[in-house]
Records
---
Amino acid sequence: TISEDDYKQWQLVHHEASVALVDRDSKVDAAAELIERDLKLLGATAIEDRLQDGVADTLTSLHKAGIKVWVLTGDRQETSVNIGFSCGLLDPSMRLFIISEQSQEAFESALSTAEKEMASEASGEGRRMALIIDGHTLAMALDKKHKTQFMAACRMCFSVICCRVAPLQKAQVVNMVKEAEDVTTLAIGDGANDVGMIRAAHIGVGVSGKEGRQAVLASDFAIPQFRFLKRLLLVHGRWSYKRVTKCILYCFYKNSTLAFTALWFAIYSAFSGQSLYEGWLNSLFNVLFTSAPIVAVATL
């Protein structure tokens, strides 16, 4: 404990440091060191950041469906690798390529070596591969000079894990994939740091949880848990795809039927402008054959 007089003296020093216009951070740290000493540790608390139920099964199903999964996280490299093993993105039989360099020259050398070894493994039908890269190295990989080579290496990998990445880098990675590949991208996140990534992808999915609702508000779809992504994509996604294709084909043939019969009649009527159908019949045709079949297909 400290006396009230000592605290008042320290409070004046801390106040002067907190309102300083020059070198404020170092002055606040120095003021804190005056009082944060001779302390006794009474206890500690921690929050277990564990995976939700069904994550591994969901990712396995997505891989079986031919969907490539990338993990973009702000966690440390060791934590990211452990998460990869626990959720099924990585397994002991895989060959891991870890690129974590500080200089441009070292990064270029590591990327070239990794790409050559990946090509050798892929041509020889060897083990599955995974690429792990940290945020500092990713900033160099996202440069125009190395973006194409980096994407070529990622294509050969079963999974890609980007750790220690900033929210802006998450969006940049999504944009890189959109520009380099003719694919539809989906981003899923649960926090405010995932908003940029969700907005950059073709489809954004937000997971509502304890980290706020920023990701949900910025997304196209919202789910309460990650495991519902499996049903969203592989069940409702497939149904939606079939319904949209049926609707497009139906509307095309419906309009073709109406237009080409009128065109064929115009040939025999010397293009006089005479109508083949009564006005009310045209309206009834569109109302009946536009609404009823589409509603029937949508409800089945």
Note: The radius of gyration is 30 Å.
---
Amino acid sequence: VGVFKPADEEPFAENNPRGYVPHSSIGNPSNMGGGDGGNDGDAGGLRQGIRPGELCLREVAAYLLDHGGFSSVPMTTLAEARHPALHSAGSNWTLSEGGAGVGAHSIRASISGADLSTIVSTPSNSTSPPELVKKVGSFQEYVTAECTMDDISPSKITVGEVHKIAILDMRLMNADRNVANILCQRIPEDPDQFRLVPIDHGYSLRSKCDVAWFDWCWLDWPQVKEPLSEEARSYVLNLDIEADVAVLEERLKLENDVLDNFRNSCLVLKAGVKAGLTLYDIASEILCRNDPSGET
């Protein structure tokens, strides 16, 4: 059992079922974000630095970069799927009908060279059903959990569990680590404690480094002010940053500015850990902004 997230149904992509549309594109076709040429981070996404239709690549990247399952990212890959429940009419709808209308945003060119999100229209006088669309997106292992961090106090979580999430988010510069994106599994041997499973990494690895204090829900948890364990310290110091960059470039075709930001965040994390800083020190003083309206 798994969770499939089609690239063309992501927020502000052409077939988003909720019709999310950037305000600048309404009534102004020239402002509609395109899906080709450069990493246009301002092309209508929820966060700058990533194009609609490419969040699924980040979902896969988080799993590929979670070496040895240190941070417990569920198994994730790219997949193709057809199903009547998948939304395919958005690119043919007007804005008033709920269509996204912001251009063709998809990963079809960078991954396979094939058009995997083209719908075959059916004439209005035809009685035959429209052809099912083959879509590409991320496919993630379904994880059973007791609840999310929405529902429990951080005091129920061990230092090591919090650190593994923080390390992942700092490496990826994840801009969407809210409490609903951390699943909690009760530990049978100690029912009062929980194992954390991070999900939803679509707003990681962006071309713009504007992560603010409120993007990391763990930043005000007391655990991040505690020293790292020898296991966590060894994990960070032994990360092969250039090997990880090669994976992102060769397998997911991420752009150079994204790779540079990833390289820099990992270098900062490693340098801070080597200097004996806590994760709180590294995150709050170096990697994220305390003033969301200021410069990075």
Note: Helices lie at 55-65, 108-111, 159-172, 230-237, 241-252, 256-274, 279-287.
---
Amino acid sequence: DGLDDAAMARLRDRITKIQESGLATSAQAYFDIATEKPPQRLLRDFFADSAPRVQQAMQDAVVALLGALPTLQFDSSVTTTGDRLAALMLQLQVTGYMLRNAEYATALRDLLEIRSREPADFRAAFERLDADGSGYIEMPEVEALLASVYGGEAPPPYEARALMKLMDADGDGRIAWDEFSAALGTLEGEGGSAFGAALPALDAAAGTASPPNVSGTVVVTLDGGREVEVDAAAYMEQLRGEAEALRSELGQLQAGEAEGSGAISTSLSAYVAALPEAQLAVLTRGMSAEVKEAMSMVVKYIFKVPDENGGERDLERDDQVTIEQDKMRTLCMYQLVLGYTLREAEAKGEADERLGR
């Protein structure tokens, strides 16, 4: 039947890139997927199309990282070094990747109608899914479960592969009970981790040099519209205290959701918070080397600084970088969405499709 217009356009684009830079790799294809949309468009499209609980989890992540300081009438900024900023961005991409896998896991819990975190309920769900009683969940049984979502039709192949890859820790093509339990997060084993433990800490990962230095006065609008001037440094200290209180409250709420009555929460943040530390690795262990390479390529691509000749050079490890806090929030959210996007592309096999494999 020949190729349609879209396929022809992809083929021509691939030929052009091969002519310009040689044969493309999977990592390059993932890089292209991550960077083909400008940041603001990627964020806009993501928040238009993604599930509310995914958006909330990412907002929780940024709050846990940066706090919830309001926009002030003076500039607040974060200062760090090039290597620490790059490390933070990579960790945020990994967190976004992890949240996509968390979404797969919670979707499976919904499909299996697991309503509590008691091991007995998970065991019963496992046995229902293990239709042939082999003691393992195999690909046909995963496909049968997903077919129920598609009205009896075969699901997209990537969905079954993504769920299998998430849970099949030893790669033998079937899911044992311990793998199923680890991926979905029962109450067995050690206690849960705080959501913040799954996220990079700003002071540790970004190496912020010190709190932003402010001086002079800031105008604060009180209830009723009355404006007063207060010392900027004192006001900033008060806001930092409020941010710490918000982070603490967020952690307590998530811990309550995760541990309260043993009931299943629909919150991705609560799901991550409920996973013991050892189980957090479940959400990232399947990441391919090509995706990891693409993440590093994206960070290198984003961070360019002026050189002495009026051009650009790569950000170096000892370069001092200062970023306004509002822009830092946007940058952090962008990295989370990039990681989520790369996981989705990996699950769908988009890199191989672009390379004609």
Note: The chain has 16 helices and eight strands.
---
Amino acid sequence: GGYDDAIAMRMAPSGGVDGGFIRREGQRLLDEAGNPFFIVGTNSYYLLEHASESQPWLKRSVVTDTLDAAKKLDLNTIRTWAFYDGEGKFQTAPGVYNESFFDALDFVVAEAGKRGLRLILTLTNFWDAYGGMENYVMWANGANETAGLSVSEFYTSEDCRNMYRDNFLAIKNRFNAYTNLTYAEDPTILAWELANEPRNPGDFTGQVLQEWIREMSAFVKKEAPKQLVTSGSEGFFGPSTLQYMYLNGNGTFDHSSYTGQMCTGVDFLTNHDDTTAIDLPSFHLYPDHHAEELCGRGAPQSDCALQWTEVQTRTRMELASSV
């Protein structure tokens, strides 16, 4: 029965996804046999939360149902959170973890590997959902609220940067009892994503975020050399590509005076250049938000939003092929 199967799975761990690690050679991804690998994936950020079953409405069956649905769609990669900061969550204090949440993340990794799915694991969040950078800044300042604090400190504070590095080490060294592998040894983990949508509002030079991406991408790559690294950036155009700043969405470009706000500290080209250890450039498209001023109301349904999305993608592909 199901109970026996569950015991058997524990006794005979899956050992991660078949096919070994995906590696990057130049601009191509290759599997262990040297065949081209193309990411076909989706974003399912909520898997850790559901796997924790920390509330009555959170169910591990949501995890397995989501992974099964992805498999039926012939997807090969899932992006999901590997963080949840705060009291009673995954990381309850700097370097202090809730074992039931860590077991939940173990479960997500193991279940993905069993289905031949690979994961992009996101390490923190610019936005306040699920904790993220604001929690690190509060921890560094001994505060329990963000009043008077700036999220920019996350990138510059030595305390915050040490906490971030230590958190990554705790995850990558974690021994997963479902797979008999540490996270760093598990080819199920395609890539580590430095943060979800990192920004540094008000930094017109983009240098603060750039230095952080350089530092942390190199750190993650050194500590987990068999796995890929991505930024998690929304990929706004910045000072290095002023000619494309008109393509940026709301909140990053003043369309009335036609002046760029320097992408809230983001610069797609430099954030992924060869001074970083980034393997996979990243950009996020939200036609219903970012295209609104360019396309007018009702953008998601409009031809304009589709054209905007195509231009966004094509421009970045051309930039990527030139570096």
Note: Residues 1-14 have pLDDT under 50 and may be disordered.
